[in-house]
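TEACHING EXERCISE
Course module: macromolecular assemblies
Task: Read the component lines below, then compare them to the predicted structure of the full complex.
Student: A.B.
Group: 4
Components provided:
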Amino acid sequence: MVGIKLNKIFFHRLFNNLVEFFRSDASRFLFPALFLVLVFYIIPVIISVYLSFTPLKNWNIDRYAGEIIGFENYYKFFYMLTHDPSVKAVFLTTIVFVALTLTVNVLGGLGLAIATYFMSEKAAGGTQLIWLLPRMTPIAVYSMIWYYFFHPSSIGTLNSILLHLGLIDKPIDFGQGIIPWGAWAIIVFVNGLVGVSYGMIVFTSAISNIPKELVIAARVDGASNWEITRRILIPLLKWHIIYVTTWQLLSLITTYDHLFLLVKWGLVNRDYGTTWSLYIYNTAFQLGETDQGLAAAAGVILVLVSSGLGLLTLKLMGFEKMIKPPRGDI
Amino acid sequence: MVVVRLDRVTKIFKGGVVGVKDISLTIKHGEFMALLGPSGSGKSTTLYLIAGIYKPTSGRIYFDDRDVTNLPPKDRNVGLVFQNWALYPHMKVYENIAFPLRLKKLPEEEIKRRVLDVARMLQIDKLLDRYPWQLSGGQQQRVAIARALVKEPDVLLLDEPLSNLDAILRISVRAELKRLQKKLGITTIYVTHDQAEALAMADRIALINEGRIVQVGTPEEVYNRPATVFVGGFLGNPPMNFLEAEVEDLDKEIFLVIGKYRIRAPERYWSIIRRLKTKRVIIGFRPEDTSIKPESLDTICLPGRVYGIEPLGRENIVVIEIGGELVKIISGRRISLTLDQMVWICPVMEKIILFDPATGKALDRLVVEEKIRAI
Ligand SMILES: Nc1ncnc2c1ncn2[C@@H]1O[C@H](COP(=O)(O)OP(=O)(O)OP(=O)(O)O)[C@@H](O)[C@H]1O
Ligand SMILES: [Mg+2]
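Instructor-supplied answer key:
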């Protein structure tokens, strides 16, 4: 009885609050944003969660979408994760790919931003432009470049270089022949190169906001470039490093566009070139027999895992301290 | 402690912007030299050249007899204090001060001893555990000075270190800084655009304008014998007054004609005017070396109209219009003047300085230059 009463009060209050919100000016300001979030995030999430509880296959909505099978898709996914070698490989690949690419992205971006800081203006501009190229190149073209670079026959750029240098005597199949590290190296390399530019831009603009007197002062006191980097630039870039790390972590977990092409073209091994998000895509749309229920369950788990990881990174790196209380007592 | 010598130093930036041009300047052992000039005149550039942050386009820089022109900043042993103090925001005060010593890889006890010594000297030893943003402006400025002094530099370079402080604090820190400098006996170059600061603190002042040194001398010299119209107009508050005049040489006497009125030229200038065959001059006189009289008593007085009165408490500044020009005169605390009243202003004859309108240089300087050229 008490429970029902409390519930009534709760809903009554919620309802009143909602009515108040929609009457207030705030709702008018927030409406466009809320609308977008609703249409492009909340609704798809609800649909995905729903689908993960149905046995939907081959997009046969009429037949399967109305049927609720509970957690069966989740059990299936965990069973495959522990028993199916392909899914195991996908899981392992995801971890390795995200960890290594993230490291390359953040350290590469930081290294480039700092290196260009110490360069002359012209050299710095040129260097940065080169590193932006992967970002500016269409995904298909960019993937094609690396497809030919790592191609397993002697037409592959890398193979032909190695052959010419006499380091090998027959072409190597990097992506399919050296498993898993060959495939991993290629996907980390290709995605790492694309992601570096993001960190580079964020860190470059952050460095340009550091008063140059700080660096001059250190220089007058005898600091080398390395000491300036370690003792002044990096500590002052701390928040930007946290931000870029978190951002890149989340986008790497969900990215699959380059991987999709590399796998499809057969440059890298299917199992060790596929990450979790590509696996979801393939399961839902690609393989002969598609299983949207299973894909949806894998997707829901992925969202949970990445939200957890995102929060964990922020926590570990002390994000709360970044959001400083406003100055003054207002 | 060293003697710093700049020998015809020029710095031209990319795009042809002139930082400083042909600067020669010697700063003596333990001297407090102020580098005074308006914004953009090249003061910071000069300082950075001495520190080694900029390399001169031409010319040489010496510390004693050592040519340091191509030496990197770290090998010059200079302490530098910036206008914005440039304290490292992520380090506590202790670490900020210790930083130069850390870079030298000194043992920890020695670092600690020296940081504490200098902190005590500057009375910031209670603040060592704070971050820069937890300090007041005056405290931050002391930390910046401590960081420059802790490495026991040969030369101390200060780039407008007081300009971020409020007026009252600035005046008290001014005296303190000068005492400290004298106590340590460290050769110091102090950049400022505040003429009062330069006059109050410096042993000598180097006035710099548009990248060139205009005059170097003790505060007394540059104030009383400005070499150019610029120097006269830059020093003093209010600065020197200027009036243009025609020269009228009547053989027996020389007169200066301003509009309808004429005054007798100071006698010490007669031979100079005749030697230089000067036709026009700028008459310069200081507001405090001029009196206001109800009628003309002297051949050096000019008539004018009271244009405005600015009470300053201790004294009054009377603005007077003479033939369309405004001049400012400091008069005593009590005055009985009304607006638009006609009065006579009478500069003290000995304090008048005459300048050449074409070059802006003082006539006695021009005559010396001419003599040198004649040899
Ligand atoms: N790094 C630079 N590159 C190009 N021009 C510069 C540079 N630094 C200074 N300048 C130019 O050189 C001239 C002198 O500058 P400087 O900074 O020495 O002036 P300043 O006397 O210190 O002025 P302020 O009182 O405003 O600090 C200015 O015209 C300035 O624009
Ligand atoms: Mg300056």
